[in-house]
């Protein structure tokens, strides 16, 4: 099994180097309009493209990932809302278990059904404890998963959930306020979790400014994910990328 991206993430964590991923939602992306985004991502030296969404209606996932791979050298990591969003064209797969929820299908059920296909895909598999935190508005992920998010001020619950994920052997923790969240995850919750876990921490959902991205990194996030804000204002890629890189410290 490949281990390239995970090794990169672990090394970055050890070195205090922060990473930045831009989330591409296949439903909101026209192939023809991708090229500006791809060029800006290359220029800004982002670390990863994340591709996926809680509910993908479009059937162009394969084609979209192929297009990104053909036009950039940046690795593509799938961030799937369901097993139907797995394509061999990508480099790696966030193998998400929704550990903040109590829906057995999203904890293990869908994994069992898709395991043979996922194994055969040849993708690098990144087992990820996925923690959804209330972002101030109902999000697609909460509705689809039928699972309540962790209240934004319940830092102890987030911490215990992340610790349990790590001790269960997950390679990454992803704390997400949900796509387009009104309130991103607080720096205080990020710090509480980051201080106690030793695996890389991904943070996303509702991050709209370089300042917030930087604050999250300083609080201990290893990888920042931004989708919506960049869809609205593509030039934010370079500003957020610079802010994330500048937060790297030894
Ligand atoms: C959502 O973390 C991602 O799952 C990104 O969220 O689109 O709000 O940046 P945004």
Give a brief description.
The chain is α/β, with parallel strands linked by helices and 250 residues long.
Question: Can you lay out the helices and strands and say which pair or pack?
Answer:
Layout (H helix, E strand, L loop, with lengths): L3 H12 L3 E6 L9 H10 L4 E4 L9 H11 L4 E3 L13 E7 L5 H17 L3 E9 L7 H6 L9 H13 L4 E5 L10 H8 L6 E4 L5 H10 L3 E4 L1 H5 L3 H11 L4
Parallel strand pairs: 1-2, 1-8, 2-3, 3-4, 4-5, 5-6, 6-7, 7-8
Helix pairs in contact: 6-7, 7-8, 8-10
The structure holds SN-glycerol-1-phosphate.
The site of SN-glycerol-1-phosphate has 14 residues, from strand 8 and helix 9.
How is this structure best described in words?
The chain is an alpha/beta fold and 250 residues long. It has a single domain (4-247), classed as TIM Barrel (Alpha-Beta Barrel), CATH 3.20.20.390. The protein is 41% helix and 17% strand. It is built from ten helices and eight strands. The chain has helices at residues 4-15, 34-43, 61-71, 104-120, 140-145, 155-167, 187-194, 210-219, 228-232, 236-246, and strands at 19-24, 48-51, 76-78, 92-98, 124-132, 172-176, 201-204, 223-226. Strands 1-2-3-4-5-6-7-8 form an eight-stranded parallel barrel, surrounded by six helices. Helix 8 links the parallel strand 7 and strand 8. Helix 6 runs parallel beside helix 7, helix 7 (187-194) runs parallel beside helix 8 (210-219) and helix 8 (210-219) packs parallel to helix 10. The chain is globular. The model has no long low-confidence stretch (mean pLDDT 93). SN-glycerol-1-phosphate binds at residues 23, 176, 179-181, 204-207, 225-229.
């Amino acid at each position: 099994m490949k281990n390239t991206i995970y090794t990169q993430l672990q090394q970055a964590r050890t070195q205090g180097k922060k990473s930045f991923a831009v989330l591409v939602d296949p439903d909101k992306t026209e192939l023809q309009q991708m090229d500006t985004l791809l060029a800006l991502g290359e220029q800004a030296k982002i670390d990863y493209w994340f591709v996926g969404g809680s509910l993908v209606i479009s059937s162009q996932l394969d084609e979209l990932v192929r297009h990104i791979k053909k036009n950039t050298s940046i690795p593509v990591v799938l961030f799937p809302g369901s097993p139907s969003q797995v394509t061999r064209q990508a480099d790696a797969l966030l193998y998400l278990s929704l550990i903040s929820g109590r829906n057995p299908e999203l904890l293990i059920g869908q994994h069992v059904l898709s395991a043979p296909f996922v194994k055969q895909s040849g993708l690098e598999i990144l087992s990820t404890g996925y923690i959804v935190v209330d972002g101030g508005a109902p999000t697609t992920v909460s509705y689809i998963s039928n699972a309540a998010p962790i209240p934004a001020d319940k830092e102890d619950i987030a911490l215990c959930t992340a610790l349990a994920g790590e001790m269960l052997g997950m390679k990454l923790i992803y704390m997400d306020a949900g796509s387009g969240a009104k309130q991103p995850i607080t720096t205080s919750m990020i710090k509480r979790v980051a201080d106690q876990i030793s695996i890389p921490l991904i943070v996303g959902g509702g991050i709209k400014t370089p300042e917030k991205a930087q604050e999250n990194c300083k609080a201990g996030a290893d990888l920042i994910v931004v989708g919506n804000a960049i869809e609205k204002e593509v030039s934010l890629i370079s500003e957020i990328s610079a802010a994330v890189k500048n937060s790297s410290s030894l």
